[in-house]
Structure formats: C-alpha cells, structure tokens
Amino acid sequence: MLQITDLQASVADKPILKGLSLTVNAGEIHAIMGPNGAGKSTLGYVLGGRPGYEVTGGSVTLDGQNGEKIDLLELDPHERAAAGLFLGFQYPVEIPGVSNVQFLREAANAQRKARGQDPLSGGEFLKLAREKAGLLRMDMDMLKRPVNVGFSGGEKKRNEMVQMGILDPKLAILDETDSGLDIDALRICGEGINAIMRRPDKAVLLITHYQRLLDYVKPDFVHVLAGGRIVKSGGPELALQLESEGYEAVAA
C-alpha cells in the first residue's frame, strides 16, 4: 500500500531524514519507535505534506483507489487526504468558531466528491458520526462544540479518532496518539484504532515512544528509527526489548 524508498528530507536546511525506506502492505500495522530527534514526526509530516518540510531525495508511492500507484510527493495535502491518507497529530489544534460537526461533514463530503462519490445528507452524516463517536465513547454534544476547544488532551485524541472513522482512510499515520492520555483514554483510543483500521484493505503507521499503546494496538512490525533511517526492524517483541533495554542498546 505504501512504499517509501530512500526518503530524504530537510527542515530549515537541516537534514532530518537521511535515506529512509519502508514498505507497508494492506492489512498491516507498523509501529515506528525511536529516540527524540530521530525524525519520527518529520516522517509523518513529510507524508502528510506539511509546508516547511523539504523532500530532497527518494520517493513515496501510495496505492490509489483503483490499485494504481500514486506519487504521493507530487500531491497537495488535500489531494493526499482524498487519496486515502489520514495524519493524526501529536498535538491536535483548536479551531475556535468552527463547529466540529460542520467541519467533519465538509471534510467528508469534500473527499467523497474527489473520489466521485455522492455527498452525505445531513441525516446520513449524523448517523455515521454517532456510530464513530460511540466507538470512542464520545457524547454527540461534544461534536457540536467548536473543534477541540475546551477539550482535555484525551478528548482531543478521541475526537481525532472520530475524525479518522468518519473520513475512513486507507492509510492512517498516527503521530504519538498515546501522548497525554491516561490509562482509560489510552485503552479507548486503542480500541477505536482497532475497530476503525484493523481491516484487510487498510494499514496503519503508528509513531510512538512507548510500548503502552502497543498493548492495545498490536503491531505486525516494529521499526527503530534513529539518525533519520530505519536501523532495525522486527516483530512486536522488539518493542518490549526497547522498553527494557533502551534505544542505544537495541539499535547499536
């Protein structure tokens, strides 16, 4: 589904990604772990198309709706979203004055239009929103509030998982979804990710520092990112090894 080959990227002329290669197939969940400054969030932002992140080499392809290979780096961020990519942020932003429900309906219908699908009616959208909010144990009243305004850290992350469910991406890149979550919110978000994305036609790239989220979202593969490259890959046991021994010992 996702093929990253020798990806190189810089921020403010400083090289961050230095030849990263990774293959993610449909039906797989991959965890990216690594020390601070290794390039984990940069990888997510580059794939999402965030301005200020300059790709200086390599390629990234994503399987399109009809199985064709799409050059992801040639697309604008909204085109990447329409192609099926979802980027979850470590720190979801607040958007005062913008209704959560209206924001999500506009986003969902914009993507449906780009894919040649009919827009959701108001009733259809509310039914979908209730279903996805239920998975994350969010009250519908919260979706009527301005986007993330007044939300706790855990509520912001759950709201973002509801967004993911409504937008129904093929590939979700989740940047430290576990950051700022208490034990209950961590479990709920983990269950939500599994319910929405653990399917044969979808894939997840889960960026995290810690093993704890992987207790709920069990990855097929774990990769250690250090110095802008993938330096080690393995199964779920690699995350446990990192937790007990640290990055330096494992990635040496």
From TrEMBL:
Keywords: ATP-binding, Nucleotide-binding. The keyword ATP-binding applies. Residues 2-252 form the ABC transporter domain. InterPro entries: ABC_transporter-like_ATP-bd, FeS-cluster_ATPase_SufC, P-loop_NTPase. Gene3D superfamilies: P-loop containing nucleotide triphosphate hydrolases. SUPFAM superfamilies: P-loop containing nucleoside triphosphate hydrolases. It comes from the Bacteria. One of its GO terms (molecular function) is ATP hydrolysis activity. PANTHER family: ABC TRANSPORTER I FAMILY MEMBER 6, CHLOROPLASTIC. Belongs to the ABC transporter superfamily. Ycf16 family. This is Fe-S cluster assembly ATPase SufC. It comes from Novosphingobium flavum.
